[in-house]
Amino acid sequence: MKKLLTLSMLFMATALFAQEEAEAPKFSISGSIDAYYRANLTAPNDENAIAPGSSFANLPGFALGMANVVASYEGEKVGFVADLVFGPRGTDAVFQSPMYSSTGQILNQLYAYWNVSESVTLTMGNFNTFLGYEVISPTANFNYSTSYLFSYGPFSHTGLKADIALSEDFSLMLGVMNDTDLTEFNPTGDYAFGAQLGYKGQFLNFLLDPSFTEIDFTGGFDLSDSFFLGINAAYLTVEDDGPGFVGAALYPQYSISDSFTLGLRGEYFAEDKDFGAIGTGVDDSSVLALTLTGSFAIDNLTIKPEFRLDSASDDAFIDNDLAATKSLGSFVLAAIYSF
To answer: Where does the signal sequence lie (predicted)?
Structure first.
């Protein structure tokens, strides 16, 4: 009788444990916070302080990035993501969402999805762009400061997209969206069309916007257990022969230990006419930007020291004597905590 009672209790405990595991909550909260220190090495750090013409990490001295809180629910067939951002980096990320200041300026992403089948997922709402190697969240980028390619490509889209798994190796995304970065509603009546063809982690992206067309390649390769090489290249042309750009970036990263990785971003970015990204004020300028970043992980905290050199074809910066110059050296020390 004792043996039967013990076996029954063991069976009930196992059944309850299995039921608890099967009914585990699917709602989750995640996110990050980041702060940094930035100083020019070849230019002033007072009221005349300047920074490269790329997004984020541009404020002098000790500065704030953003607080990012992501609420998500993942069901068997349906789910949603509500991605909220607060702080200077977040404000820059949603710069085209001022229609409703109480809500639009904190919404980074807000979408619902439906897994129609094992190979097809439909997503509707506001989602970060599918183009480019870098993203808004600092937790997903190796370098803390961002590239020209990221800064002048799209940030976000609002619309409907279909992600299709064509096979184990091939994927396809097709989407119809509002004008790029118009995230809360459509004030123009025009629509953009996007497509992405993926093969084993390499992605060829197309965006046909009412005012521009962009073609983008994003990918990377594990050259060894310790060495990874990321790649990004893009070409943007504006309608009516307007200014555009072309650029490419390589991201070699080497893991020195389990907690420390060293990486370099080497980027070439060229404007067609005076696109305005580099800041020279003249036509057909270009810039070579080299960013060396160390990434030191301590549990959920990542410390990133970073040296950056931007060298333009024309005067885009100033030196310590406030004279125009073609180059700018700078240093950033960032702290990123993810949860």
So the answer is: 1-18
